[in-house]
Amino acid sequence: MEEQNLNKLEQHRQEKLAKIRQLGIDPYGQRFDNVESSQSIVSRYVEGEKATTAGRIVLLRDIGKLIFITLRDSKGTIQVGLSKNLIGDQWELIKLLEHGDIIGVSGQLGKTKTGEITIWVEAVTILSKSVLQPPEKFHGLSDVDLRYRQRYVDLWANPEVMQRFKTRSDIVASIRSFLRERDFCEVETPMMQAIAGGAAAKPFITHHNALDMDLYLRIAPELYLKRLLVGGMEKVFEINRNFRNEGLSPRHNPEFTMMEIYQAYADYKTMMDLAEEIVCTLIEKHCPSNVLQFGDMQVDYSRPWKRAKYADLLKQYAGCDINDLAAVREKARQLNIKEAGMDDAIVINDVFEETVECNLVNPTFVYDYPAAICVLTKRNKENPDYAERFELYMAKMELANAYTELNDPQVQYDNFKHQLKGQKESEAVMDDDFITALKYGMPPAGGLGIGIDRLIMLLTGATSIRDVVLFPLLKSAAK
Fold first, then answer.
1. pTM listed for this prediction
2. Residue ranges in the chain modelled with pLDDT below 50
3. At residue 68, what are phi and psi to the nearest 5 degrees?
4. Cα dihedral angle (461, 465, 470, 476), rounded to 10 degrees?
5. Closest Cα to residue 219, out of 238, 239, 203?
6. Of 101, 121, 99, 120, nearest to 110 (Cα)?
7. Cβ partners under 8 Å of residue 64, min gap 6
């Protein structure tokens, strides 16, 4: 029955479309000049001044010889008033307008009896006829799955969604400005790579027909950015897409935006300072305070941020010493982690993830990770069992990962060889060119990766990654 009603509504709209054409009017419009945003018109209001704007009809009240329409554009909404006496010959067209249509209007500014700023329209141009029924009246698109599938409706039906994505754009622009002011050079590195490297994740595989070779959508840009350090670019960053052929969750999308930064003559402590400064600068510029709500948590971003060693946090929250492997494995079994046959370092990290991460609400730099799980990282000189790596946690999730970058070609080669053990022969491919680059000499450096989607989640209070990605990957819709 509901589908039949929808079909009737669509049929009704198609009939109106035909009537517009019968009037000799193009229902899909042409160029429309001198468009001013609703926000600009309201801010400069002077009674009697002329105004021209365009937008989508999100509310229409027909009271006979007077029609009030609310138009929405990317900046907000404005009311327009249409009087039969003022419009004259266009009244027949106006009576065919509906919720969802896109129109352009020109007229004089005034106010209604209730004081609402209104454009009293003298001319109307239809720019695009909507032949599908929009979301119910003025209340927006509420079905979450439909919102993600039809983001093109979600954006204009739900103003807070439009604002979130505009905020995302502003935040990314601020990051670029921050780094450019500090002499970082923005670069682009390959999205398709012959070897899937730079992180441990399952890649997407594609095929280049002309070269008859398989390629991988990149899981990380790291190894190419480090090549640029070898080439003499001392401060580089990239904000771009990574692809990982893994699961979907409120915090994971297979296609996601990552920022990676590399600075010559720096280390992981330099990157700690940089990460803290970037995020706090963004909060100061784009957020109402240093304390932000995220789901049921309040996250306090006030500086300085906590810095804690990996082993100390493991002892605090898991109750076992990192060097007591029997105790760690016992804890793993208690947590239903299948630790038998698993490398010691992996067991330790699984226990860490299960027991520690859920306690890190306010920003916390967790540093000095077990060296065995840090293939691309320099080891701590004082204790080579640990690597100079940190992960930045807030709101119980990882936001950033950083290293003092390994630049010894022999050690890097040995680490790669160890990492490739046990992999399928087709997957166990050494990046020989990266080793060659290191042999020419890469300066000591610090590297930092920040998940942009998660950062936007935290700064806008969106608890699902799908709410900050314009077109998230979804399962096929049920038919």
1. 0.92
2. 1, 137-139
3. -105, 130
4. -140
5. 203
6. 120
7. none
